[in-house]
Amino acid sequence: MPARVLGIILAAVAGSAAAHAESCPRKDALGTSRTLAVDAASTPRVGLKSFPQTLPLTDHEVVLTFDDGPWLATTPKVLAALAHECARATFFLIGKPASEHPELVRRIAAEGHTIGTHTWTHPSLARIKPGAAVQQIDHGISAVGAALHDGGAATLLAPFFRFPGFESTQATLDLLQSRGITVFGADLWASDWNPMTPRQELKIITDRLNGAHKGIILLHDTKAHTAAMLPAFLDYLRQNHYRVVHLVPAARGAKAEAAH
Known about the structure:
Elements: H1 3-9, H2 16-19, E1 34-38, E2 45-46, E3 61-67, H3 75-85, E4 90-93, H4 95-100, H5 102-110, E5 114-117, H6 130-149, E6 160-161, H7 170-178, E7 182-184, E8 188-189, H8 198-212, E9 215-220, H9 224-239, E10 243-249
Parallel strand pairs: 1-10, 2-7, 3-4, 3-9, 3-10, 4-5, 6-7, 8-9
Helix pairs in contact: 3-9, 5-6, 8-9
């Protein structure tokens, strides 16, 4: 894919609605406490499960991220739970389902969430040929970007990427860094790729959060048990005084916030 085209697709989120959390009509909702601008130049890779650095979060600050969508059966339930609590998240979408359900991609953006990418069909990029890995990255970016743009959405695709299974290679890491794309790992997760009940998942994620006290949280909006668990988890965050941080790309020329 030409660099010029990628540059257009990977523009920063447009509009003040994406830069600042809107006021929430429910005064007792969890809400979104602040917006954090992420600049790939100073923050090329984050998430302590994969890298030595993470985002500059303070105690009891969390970033909510969701992988593998959009999925018609479950993503709307996740969006409804987030909307009820006025909480903003980042969705790492797979290109193929995004191309099949562009209206759901645009709904995610319209509700104020940030959209990154997660390849075209979710293979392990460390286990396929280098050329095929680049194609997976590029096709995923172009497909998700097209799903947003075809409907005239004001929100553009963020230069955020997450590797399927966190399986990267040095070549793909270097490629993404050269393109100004931040690679996201995670600081903790609910292991929701395993079969479990919503109650079991809630215990796993709250126990891990009690140990970490902050961080980038990975969930999957394609999992029925996660969609069912999410309202209780957001309520747990509210009752235990956690604060949700919304991620957006740093504006061009803006001073970057360094990771630590």
